[in-house]
Amino acid sequence: MTLARTRSIALIGLHGELVDIEVDISDGLPGYSLLGLPDAALMESKERVRSALQNSGAQWPNKRVTVSLSPAWLHKSGSGFDLPIAIALLVAQGAATSSELDSHVIMGELSLDGSIKPIRGVLPALIAAEQLGIARAIIPAENLAEAQGLTSLKPIPVSHLSEVVLYLEEGVIPDFDALQPVARAVEQKDLSEVVGQKAARFALEIAAIGGHHLLFLGPPGTGKTMLAERIPTVMPQLNAQESLEVAAIHSIAGALAERQIDSQTPPFVAPHHTTTSTAMVGGGAHAIRPGACSLAHNGVLFIDEAPECNAGVLDALRQPLESGSVAISRVAGTIIFPADFLLVLAANPCPCGRFNGKGLTCTCSSVQIRRYLQKISGPLLDRIDIRTFVEVPSRAELGSVEPGESSEVVRARVIQGREVAADRFKHESWKLNSRIPASQLRHKYRATREAMAFLHSELDRERLSARGYHKVLRISWSIADRYGSSTPSLQEVQEAYRLRQGSQIL
Amino acid sequence: MAQTLQQIGADGETLVASYLQGQGVTIIARNWRIKEGEIDLVARDGAILIFVEVKSRSNSKFGHPLEAITPAKAFRLQRLALAWIATHDQWGADYRIDCAAVHFRQGLKPEVEYRAGVL
Lengths: 506, 119
What we know:
The complex is a heterodimer.
Chain A: E1 3-12, E2 15-26, E3 31-35, H1 40-43, H2 45-55, E4 64-70, H3 82-92, E5 104-106, E6 109-110, E7 116-117, H4 122-131, E8 136-140, E9 154-158, H5 161-170, H6 198-210, E10 214-217, H7 224-229, H8 231-234, H9 240-253, E11 268-269, H10 277-281, E12 282-283, E13 289-290, H11 292-295, E14 300-303, H12 318-323, E15 325-330, E16 333-338, E17 342-347, H13 366-374, H14 378-382, E18 386-389, H15 395-399, H16 407-424, H17 438-442, H18 449-460, H19 466-483, H20 490-498
Parallel strand pairs in A: 3-4, 5-8, 8-9, 10-17, 10-18, 11-14, 14-17
Antiparallel strand pairs in A: 1-2, 2-4, 6-7, 12-13, 15-16
Chain B: H1 5-22, E1 26-34, E2 37-45, E3 48-57, H2 71-87, E4 95-103, E5 111-115
Parallel strand pairs in B: 3-4
Antiparallel strand pairs in B: 1-2, 2-3, 4-5
C-alpha cells in the first residue's frame, strides 16, 4: 500500500474539526510536500517525523511523499499533526497495518527520538471527537489527565512511536498510570482571613448573588486584592459542564498546569494592569488563543489598579461584558471564545493613594483626583453595579482575635440567594439579578411602594441618575434574595443605594 | 579493492545501461558532455527519448543517492536534455528524464534502483 489515511482534529477556537491526513508515496525524486494550509510549526513536522521514524527503527521512504490535510481550506496549526502523519507514513510503507484507523483520532508531537510529547488543546479536541462519534483517541500520555471527563471516547495514552505501532497491530494498550499531578500545596483562601471590612464583605456577597460587577475603591494596603481573590470561594461551585468548558479554554491556552481539570472552583484571573488588549480578550496572528477574559469564563476577572490600565484595554472588555463571549477576527477566520465573567476592578481613590476618610494626608489636587478615576471610561463604569469603599481597618478590627465569617458560610447564602432568583426568573431569558432589563425593572420587577418613593425622591433631588436608579434596583433584588424577602423593601433599597456610594466621587 | 570515485561512477553507468538494454531500450549515447554539464545516458524507447542521471554510492554515509539531486540539479538536467534535443535536431520528440541509483555494497551484488519520469 502506498496510500494511507489517518485522522486527527484541528481546533478553531474551542470548536474542533475532523481532519483527514492522507499520505501518498510515489516514485520520483525524494521529496516531501505538505498540503492543506499548514502553519510554520506544522511545516517543520517533516524534519521531526523523519528523524523520529529513523530513530525508532523505521524507514523514511526515499521517494516522493505527498501529505495532504483535508479539508484543504482549513488553516491548520501546531505540532499535534506529527503523530498522525508518522502513522500514515508507516501504514503507507506497509510497516504498520490497521483495519481500524478510521475509528481513531490521533494527535501528538514527535520528539526526534520517536517519543511523544504533550500538546495544547487536547481536551477540546477530544470533546469534538466524541461529538463526532469517534470511538478512540491516541493521545500523548502526558495529556491523559485531560481525557478523564469524557464518557464514550476511549483514550489510548502513548509515549513512544513504537507503542502506537504495537497498539495498532496487536491492540496492546500501553500500560500507563496517569501521572498523578504533584499534589501542589494549593493555598486555600478563605474569607475568614479578612479582618473586619464589613461593608466590603457585604458588597462581595451581594455581587456573588446577583452577578454584579464590582469596583473596590480604597487606599493601598486595605485588602482590596485580598477580598477580590476570595470571591471565587463564595461563588457556587461549577457544575460538570461548566468545569469542562473552563478546562477546555485553559487547555487551548496551555494553562492547564495552573488549574486542575476537574476543579469546581470558579477560575480567578488577575492580569497585570500593563497587559495589552490582545492578552485581555485573546488573539494572535496564526493560532488564535484565548485571553484573560476567556480564562476567567465562569469565574472572576480581577484588574488591580484599573485606572493605570492602558487606554482601550478596559474598553475591550465591553463586548464580552455585553454578550458573554468574544469574537476575534484574524486572517485565519473568526473565532468565538466564551467569556462570561464577574468583573472586579480595584482602584486607588487618587494618584497618591492616600485619599481616605477626610483625606488629610492626600497630596493630590481635586482636579487630579477627578481625572484619575475618569481613566475608567463611562461606558465601562456603566456596566459596573457596585462601587464600594474599602476602608483602612480600625484598631479594634485589627486587634480582634475572632475570625470573620468563613467562605463556606457565605457561599451557602449565595447559593440560596441564587436559587431564589433562578426560581423567580424561571420563565425569563436571564438568571441573575444583574441581567434584569431596565424596562422590566420599571414594571414587573419593582420594589415596594415606599422603596420606589425613596428612589423617586432621590431622582428628583438629582442625587441619582436614571442609570443609577436601575442599578440600585437590581442590587436591591440581590439584597432581598440574601435576606429572603419577596420584594425589595425600603431598607434593602437604601442598602443598595449605599453600595453605590463610590459613585459619588466618580 | 580500492576503487576511485570515477570508477564507481563509470561502473554504475555501465550497470544501468545494461539494465536498460535488458528492458529493450536502445542506448544512444553515454556521457554526452557540453560546457553546462553532462548527461550520463541517452537512450531511446520506441519514439521516446530517455535521459538518465545515474547516482552511484559505495556507502550510505551521505544519505540516499537520489537525495543528492537537488532542485537546482534537476533543473540543470532539464536544460541539458533540451540542449541535446537541440544539438541533434530532434525538436518535438517526446522525452522523459529518469534517475537511477546504484548501491555498491561490499560483498554483495550491486543493486540498481530505477525511477522513470521523475521530473
